[in-house]
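Input chain follows. Return structure tokens only.
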Amino acid sequence: MKTVVRSSLFVAMIVLCALHAREASAQGGQTAQPATSNPTASQQDQELDSQVFIREVRVPITVLDKKKEPVVGLTVNDFLILEDKQPQQIVSFTNESQNQPLYIGVLMDTSSSTAGKLRFEKEAALNFIHTVARLRKDQVAFVTFDDEVRLLQDFTTRLDLLDKAVNNVKKPGNHTALYDAVWQICDEKMRSIPGRRALVVITDGDDTYSRATLANAIDIAQRTETVIFAISTKAGFSGSVPGVEAGQVADRGDRDLEKLCEETGGRAFFTGDILALERSFTRVAREMRSQYIATYRPTNNRYDGSSRRIEVKLANKGKGMKVTAKSGYTAIADGIR
């Protein structure tokens, strides 16, 4: 009888120990697991308020005098930058004396309207490339656009490859997808380039086929810090468009082309003969090489998708001088560094 009682007591003690161990293990597991809790809306707002988005906006700037010649030799102290009318502090500044390489995308219109002057446009493209590109320093890409956008030569310093790409253009397409070309090349090629960036558009007409709009083209150029220049070849060699003098902005297409350039910090040239065209090339080259690059951190540091307006002024009022820079940007993450 005593043996049975002892055995029962022994079994009971084992069971009690096992139960205690299981409870301790369960308590230990609960302690090891981190407590999870869903933050309240006010906590989330506080976290957002405490975040600071470190970003920089890069602004290429051109200053022209009364004769439309580039003004060189200015310093950071000569410029004021405002974003949405609020003064901004310039954190870095480079000028033309630092001689940075240029990355230039040449976009040539090969739509049906160019059929009678395709040779003229090809000569214009070649003349521009040889006028602007410095040997073994500047990089040039060559693109055609009509119904499609075609990168015929990626960025290169080799003029022979660029000559070959231009000369291989034989047959025009049907439509003009100018804004698609600007959007695609800015997005795929200009976004990650380290140096000064510019597109030069050689075209004779209006956009007739793009899915992108004029506003889309301006937006992507501003976000990728790409300055756009345009050479209108509407008048061809003849120098005569009925009712329009060479160099005159004629219709809505011309005005849209001018807006595309001005909103990104460039200029549009409306030429009527080959000599005027060559003078335009020289002006574009001088303006690109005389650019100042100012970088600032916006005081409004939110990626809120809003449109920000940029205004660049000369601190000393700059009598007779005209400052050209991109007019703004959209505050989204891919457009700010």
